[in-house]
Amino acid sequence: MRPTITAFERSPDLGRGLARDMRVRWAMEEIGQPCDVRLVSFEQMKQPAHLALHPFGQIPTYEEDNLALFESGAIILHLAQKHPGLLPVDADARARAIAWMFAALNTMEPPIVEYGMSKVVERGQPWFEARQPMLEDRVRTRLGQLSARLGTADWLDGDFSAGDLLMVTVLRRLPGSGLVEEHPNLAAYVTRAEARPAYQRAFAAQLAVFNRAAG
Ligand code: GTB
User: What is the H or E stretch that residue 163 is in?
Assistant: First the structure.
């Protein structure tokens, strides 16, 4: 059976591919697995039918035969373990690529999301300005460390992997901040990943959803 994933009916990212269905779409394209996309509204996400798939009432979800998954990282790990193309065959290299998946989601994403969310939901607070340097510094520290590790390499550990896919989607959560651009190697890393045909196809598919909803 062709897998089905869920995505926003109307994404608040205005077609910029920042919501987490983008990473699943991209992974699907990298492994050459077509999928159906079921679009859901914010209201539908909180209804029992969707909550049965996703306990937190979010997107993305993944359904394939009798398997239903939530959490973008778990979905991508499942795809990467099932299909060639996103994880190395060598066991040690595979373990390192999985470590990069966790690093993207566990070490890089939290400060980046907190920094971005603060600008959306805390702007009116009297302490907003005072808190910004601390949030920005946390992101800067992690970006500096990531940049040092990447160095002049194309990808984080050998060939492109699910670790790079997740890392790039996380770095893309900083649009307009200039923080990634402080490290030319990280900016080039994101550009290199975005040039991959699989990324381009996934981006176009999510943009088409936004354009249809807007038009
Ligand atoms: N840890 C989960 C995962 O990795 O799958 C997190 C899933 C998640 O946060 N889903 C969000 C969601 O469904 C969409 S991606 N939110 C609805 C809700 O919680 O009610 C987060 C997101 C939303 C919007 C933008 N944007 O506008 O730029 C970017 C990212």
Answer: helix 162-171
**Contact between residue 94 and residue 159 where contact means Cβ atoms under 8 Å apart:** no
Q: What residue owns the CA closest to ligand 1's atom 28?
A: 13
Rounded to whole angstroms, the Cα distance separating 133 from 141 reads 12
Q: What is the distance in A from the centroid of ligand 1 to the CA of 150?
A: 27
Model confidence pTM above 0.85: yes
From 59, 77, 210, the mutation candidate for ligand 1 (largest count of ligand atoms within 8 A of CB) is 59
Which candidate, 158, 151, 163, places its Cα nearest to that of 30? 163
DSSP conformation letters of 110-136: HHHHHHHHHHHHSTTSTTHHHHHHHHH
pLDDT above 90 covers a percentage of the chain that reads 97
The domain 91-196: what is its CATH number?
1.20.1050.10
Architecture per CATH, domain 4-85+198-214, reads as 3-Layer(aba) Sandwich (3.40)
d(CA 59, CA 20) in angstroms, rounded, equals 7
**pLDDT single digits (tens) 138-160:** 999 999 999 999 999 999 999 99
Which residues are registered as beta bridge partners of 5?
37, 62
SS3 63: strand
